[in-house]
Amino acid sequence: MLRSFLIYLSKAAGAQKLITSWGFAWRAASRFVAGDTVSDAIRVVRELNAKGINATLDQLGEHTSTAEEANGAADSIVHVLQEIDKAGVKANVSIKLTQIGMGLDEETCRQNLVKILEQAKKSNNFIRIDMEDTPYTDITLAMYQSMLERGFTSNQVGLVQQAYLFRTEAEIRGLLNHTTRIRLVKGAYNEPPEKAFPKKTDTDANYDLLAKIMIDATVAKENNSISTDGRTPPFIAIASHDDKRIDFAKKHAEKMSLPKNSIEFQMLYGIRRDLQERLVKEEYPVRVYVPFGAQWYPYFMRRLAERPANIWFFVSNYFRK
Fold first, then answer.
1. Which residue in 110, 130, 181, 287 is the catalytic one?
2. Does domain 34-295 have CATH number 3.40.640.10?
3. Which of 257, 264, 299, 314 is the most buried (most CB within 10 A)?
4. Is 242 annotated as catalytic?
């Protein structure tokens, strides 16, 4: 119930206007958001790189309302890729298709995605397309496929898959046939019970099954390791803060003799820093998802929805205001 309410608030314009007016709200959000500008994000990436951790930059924003906003968002993402190249940091970029026009006009979104991927190819970098809620699942998969048909490869573009959806197992099996680089997450949207596992235990079990399928399918693939510049990830990215999910993936990868540099563990900025550093010491590639930008509110509310400890962090900041 609380999770559903917080996800509802993440999309409520009135709640956004109210909460973002509270100074303490940004103080709490800054644990999970690097700052307003790409310069703030690059500074955080340098700190992570110094610890042996790679990064994915995400300029926050979704559901743009005009073509001009969508085109501007695409131009900003191109700029982020250029700034990564200029700084020489070990980072790639994550995007949401609704940010570059998917909810407005399919052709606008396609043109913007091509523009971004052309810059990624020029910069020898990688774009991860986030998977949003289920009204956009089919079009996201179709847009990805259309990019492959245009000649872009898995070295330039990959996808996110969500373990709480019933449909994901079949999708992952198909994507692996295209050697898609997949980031496996549990899922952070409020989906109906006919589309997603309603119980956490079922989602956890499916997450482990999907991790096993991904590991089994990629053991024998060539070029299945993180690039030396830290920008192109392996085919398998386990995105979780759950020790049990991570331990399962590690043990199965070891059982299948998958080299450590062929499986990457990904986490969110500001969460489980202890686990990030432990995995680095164990010589696994680790990547931290670093969001930045003024549009931090929806992202922050979804982080509160995911973990009760995050709500306590928010409340404690209220009393420090």
1. 130
2. no
3. 264
4. no
